[in-house]
Amino acid sequence: MAAAARSTGAAEITRRLASICGPSFARFAGAADEVAGRAARWVAVPGGPQATAEVLRLAARHDLTVVPRGAGTKIDWGAAPARVDIMLDTGRLAGIGHQPPGSPVVEIGAGTPLRAVQAVLERTGRRLPLDPPSPGATLGGVLAADEAGPLRHRHGTACEQLVGLRWLDADGELVGAGVGPAELSAGAAPVGLDVGRLLCGSQGGLGVLVSATVRAQAVPASRIWVSRPVWTPLEVHDLLRAVLAARLDPAAIELDLPATGVRPARPMDPALAAARAAHPSMAGRREAPARVGSGTLAVLLEGGPADVAERVDRLVTLFDGEASVDNAAPPWWRSYPFGPGDTALRIEVPITDLHAAVYALRDAAGAPVPVRGSAGLGVLHAALPGTLPAERVASILAAVRGVLLARRGRCVVVAAPPTVRRQIDVWGEAAVIPRLRAAKDHLDPHRRLAPGRLPGGL
């Protein structure tokens, strides 16, 4: 603990936190109060922006570090902070701002669970076009982790949908960017969001989010999922090209490639087989056996009933009779392929090289690896067993990153067991480090907010 805090005394820090947050909302941290394996000293749950600012000022006076926490669904993502003195729980920074009737945007407290927001908006026939996979995620947590679900294909991430943002800097000063509902309805244009958007994906390392103003939209009258089995990454490549070329305006294109089951060989047109064998990604490789139930490409179409029905018919024809049509999402939709204890990877690559990335991962791991995500954008998640030693994970990462580097892609470690995380490079090459360093120097020059959570150990 910092020297200033030692001189004041742990009990005195606890008392001061309790006076700010209330006796029931400040305590010594327990065994479960960790951030990526790093234990906290105190937990504070301030009741509003002003109390949050006072916690940050207390931390500044005593040279204490602060790491924000929302619902905790992604608290183990990313790099471990160098130190966690105060875990700042944002659960009481919740609520939905007053909205004029028909307002196209809504202001939401950072600690508000997204499912609660959706339930409120649904009563007026609206929704946020956000569907992150983490159950119970708060808006602040989604922004801080830059998390997105299938709907990012059409609507972008939560960060890309921002029109306004409020946060507290390391000294407890309230900062605003963009506009709120009142200004937008008056015709104002968002300004200053470039700095605000740097907080997206920062894991609390640049500021403590207070609220965000995001766009709302009418709930689509019709939602239909069209799914097709797929057997190899190269087949996914061909289908993606066809779907995107058909101009079907999909709301989402998701891929699920588990790593189990083998299906009997099925006949393939000789010309197609020869073309696939000659594809550049197959150089020096024999295609692995196709796998039963291990592959699904699913497309979500949204809009008016007649329009959606017409596009569904076109897509079924394009899928050559192998499609299934459903009013509900596939069971794996909007979920990650990894679980607690796994080493979780995120791969981002141009969609033209998506199959090459999956093949590279398979080659490096020595076997098929569960892969799932937004194939239509080239953003996939993959799972490696948590039992793999750190040296093996490091070798897999090096091989995959070598392939992706030439294809303008990247692979980051989303989460990993602490013993693995400590010995690997979580981020790999990160071109944003100079910009993040400048932002950190400006917004948190004394490195009090989640130090070490950002790329480059910032």
Structural write-up:
The strands form four sheets. This protein has an eight-stranded antiparallel beta sheet with strand order 15-12-14-13-17-18-16-19. Strands 1, 2, 3, 4 and 5 form a five-stranded mixed beta sheet that branches. A four-stranded antiparallel beta sheet has the order 6-10-8-9. Helix 2 runs antiparallel to helix 3, helix 10 packs antiparallel against helix 13 and helix 13 (354-365) runs antiparallel to helix 14. The chain has 458 residues and is an alpha+beta fold. The longest helix is centred in the last third of the chain and has 16 residues, at 390-405. A hairpin with a 5-residue loop joins strand 8 (162-168) and strand 9 (174-178). The chain contains 16 helices and 19 strands. The radius of gyration is 24 Å and the shape is globular.
List keywords for this structure.
5-stranded mixed sheet; alpha+beta; 19 strands; 458 residues; 8-stranded antiparallel sheet; 16 helices
Strand order of the largest sheet: 15-12-14-13-17-18-16-19
Q: Percent of residues in beta strands? A: 15-25%
**Count of β-strands:** 19
**What overall geometry do the principal axes of the alpha carbons give?**
globular
Report the mean per-residue pLDDT as an integer: 88
Structural class: alpha+beta
Largest sheet: 8 strands, antiparallel
Q: Number of DSSP helices? A: 16
Calculate the terminal CA-CA distance, rounded to whole Å.
19 Å
How much helix, percentage-wise, in residues?
25-40%
Which regions contain 5 or more consecutive residues with pLDDT less than 50? 261-268, 278-293
Cα-atom Rg, whole angstroms?
A: 24 Å
